[in-house]
Amino acid sequence: MTKIKLAEKTIELIKSVCTQFGNKESELINVLHQIQSKLGYLPAEVQEVIAAELNMSVAKVYGVVTFYSFFTMLPQGEHPISICMGTACYVRGGEKVLHEFKRHLGIEVGQTTADGKFSLSCLRCVGACGLAPVVLVGEKVYGRVSPQQVSKIIAEYQEGCVNVQTA
Amino acid sequence: MEKITLNIDHKNIEVPRGTTILEAAAQVGIDIPTLCHMKLHDMNIENKPGGCRVCVVEVKGRRNLAPACCTEVAPGMEISTHSMRAVNARRTILELILSDHPADCLVCAKSGNCELQDMAHQMGIREIHYQGAQTHYREDTSPAIIREMDKCIRCKRCETMCNEVQTVGVLSTINRGFEAVVSPAFEMNLDHSVCTYCGQCVAVCPTGALTEVDETGAVIRALSDPSKTVIVQTAPAVRAALGEEFELEAGTLVTGKMVSALRRLGFDYVFDTDFAADLTIMEEGTELLSRLGKYLAGDKEVKMPILTSCCPAWVKFFEHQFPELKDIPSTARSPQQMFGAIAKTYFADKIGVKREDLVVVSIMPCVAKKYESSRDEFAANGNPDVDYALTTRELASLINLSNIDFKSLPEEDFDQPLGESTGAGVIFGTTGGVIEAAVRTAYEIQTGKTLPRLDFHELRGMEGLRKATIDFDGTPINIGIAHGLGNARKLLEEIKAGKSEFHAIEIMSCPGGCIGGGGQPYHHGDVEILKKRQKAIYSEDKNKTLRKSHENPHIKKLYEEFLGAPMSEKAHHLLHTGYFDRS
């Protein structure tokens, strides 16, 4: 087994989340949610601490992490980009938009750019089908995105200043 | 309990509420086909994920077909287990499973013993109408177990054994949908995981997805090398199960036939691990008495209880999961390793063969013994004490390919000196046996009196956790017994918490002990087979003239000529070991 080499602070954080959920195995999904929201991802060492705290096997924790596409073991970029592939977005060109993001950033879905700025993922339906196709950058929603707009969206974040104008 | 009346295949039947359709049908002699389902009766082990759907039946008035293994009966149910709809669905399901299964039955290690193959035969599948993608996953080879996940049908039996029964927690289904695979955490290989190699996953796998590492080829090469002297040792549980591979009734003792088969295979000397089991008792028993003596005299430093150390999967289990307890188990090596160490020193000298030219093969009911023999500490200058550890199944395959008609073989005796054993050595093969053998010797050494009886029925049985108090001529000795690592864990937690009431504990990893080992002929979920093997072991003990390890004349001679006394410096060097923190 790999020896756990996390910062003390991170271990404390994981332990406190587990305690908050009563160190119960049945709360695994909630625990994973909370910890991913705080750390951005769930690397192996983190899963090992969670398994120990919830008194379950790390194989089971890994089983759950790999079952749900929401959980990730890779660090997210500073600006996580999600492209909706739900039915409405898909038929209105979501895939072409995704293709443009891949081309511009030079990464595949599930990857992060070398400078750590952007990561790319797909999701299914954010409940804004009227705005299809939809792209999320962090918490910000971009609607009716065309492939031509992709470079502009990326540029907003590259200059380090987020355009406050809503989409 | 409330009774429910229902009808299965036009037969009326009354069963308690909570009974599944599968169990109810079995009561009227209807055997509904199952694949993922596995129930080990009396052991409280059941796997019923309802995943394969092969057991679907038609229930009148119900829209969809019901999986019999996990649907409870209801009053007035009318069930057809072989309606056209049910049979068609069953065949379709089976064809779909087969469409994602490699069609290499002719060369598969599990051929002839595969439940999927049997099912295809029973269902009369002659063509697979579905063709699509097939799962491809890298093969994972460890010192003992091979994982070929392309052959996995995701029945989850291995997961049940690994997690619920053994509480080892190595295997889990990971990913989802078509990508789903049973794997250790982070898809690491078994040999990087906390796997104990107990082999219970192999014992229950319905297909060839999990099998033991096959070393028969290496043994055949050694046997045909004229420069090598090749000797063999056979573990006690093998003789009580090997016959099953040759269509003999479970529980048939085949000790004599096994010896003659091994001689015909070309082994130069056919010896018995039972001899080494007697030797283990001398060492472990002496250690027990020494620790116990100090403890009873009020020494607070001495660690109690003493735990047996014959089972390599159990050793690996506590090294990973309870490293803080690693100085509690006896330091005595397992009989397999004691045999190897004595064979390559004492016996090699006796026959004038150099260590490098002596090949020690063992026949074990176990897959973990393969791993044990490969541990670094059991070798001298890179030459292992035991060169190859074959399972009972591998021995059967060697016999088959050598054109030996096993059933018609004459009964022959083991060679001397390492073939002499007592009944105490034989019972090592079953849960409760090691501690009973230890009691027989420890009692007489401690009290200086002859035991009034030799059969300790209070130590025998099939319950997962047992305890008994044996009166050592006025001193009550508390003994605990666990088989199955999940049960062992309970006793270890007690020790850790300082609440253990025991002086000595026997632990075997496999349910039933070695008779239920991962290398034994497949029992396919029939626990009665284990009970018959256990009975056979006790009857061999009963029929032995000598039944106490310290009365074995060749053991006495070994100490006189070579070792000196139990726990002597030489004995320490050759017969004892230490454990490692693998957490």
Automatic annotation (TrEMBL), chain A:
MF-aspect GO terms: 2 iron, 2 sulfur cluster binding; metal ion binding; oxidoreductase activity
UniProt signal peptide: none
CDD domains for this protein: TRX_Fd_NuoE (cd03064)
Cofactor binding note from Swiss-Prot or TrEMBL: Binds 1 [2Fe-2S] cluster.
Domain of life: Bacteria
Keyword Iron: yes
Binding sites annotated in the UniProt record for [2Fe-2S] cluster: 84, 89, 125, 129
Cofactor: [2Fe-2S] cluster
InterPro entries: NADP_DH_HndA-like, NuoE-like, NuoE_dom, NuoE_N, Thioredoxin-like_sf
Pfam families with a match to the protein in the record: 2Fe-2S_thioredx
UniProt keyword Metal-binding, yes or no: yes
Keywords: 2Fe-2S, Iron, Iron-sulfur, Metal-binding
Family designation: Belongs to the complex I 24 kDa subunit family.
Family matches, as PANTHER family: NADH-QUINONE OXIDOREDUCTASE, E SUBUNIT, POTENTIAL NAD-REDUCING HYDROGENASE SUBUNIT
The protein's name: NADH dehydrogenase subunit E /NAD(P)-dependent iron-only hydrogenase diaphorase component iron-sulfur protein
Species, as recorded: Mangrovibacterium marinum
Lineage of the organism: Bacteria, Pseudomonadati, Bacteroidota, Bacteroidia, Marinilabiliales
UniProtKB/TrEMBL annotation, chain B:
Gene3D superfamilies documented for this protein: 3.10.20.740, 3.30.70.20, 3.40.50.1780, Fe-only Hydrogenase (Larger Subunit), Chain L, domain 3, Iron hydrogenase, small subunit
SMART domains the record matches: Fe_hyd_SSU, NADH-G_4Fe-4S_3
Annotated signal peptide: none
Keywords linked to the UniProt accession: 2Fe-2S, 4Fe-4S, Iron, Iron-sulfur, Metal-binding, Oxidoreductase, Repeat
Any one GO MF annotation of this record: 4 iron, 4 sulfur cluster binding
Domain 4Fe-4S ferredoxin-type: from-to ranges: 143-173, 186-215
Name listed for the protein in its UniProt record: NAD(P)-dependent iron-only hydrogenase catalytic subunit
Species this chain originates from: Mangrovibacterium marinum
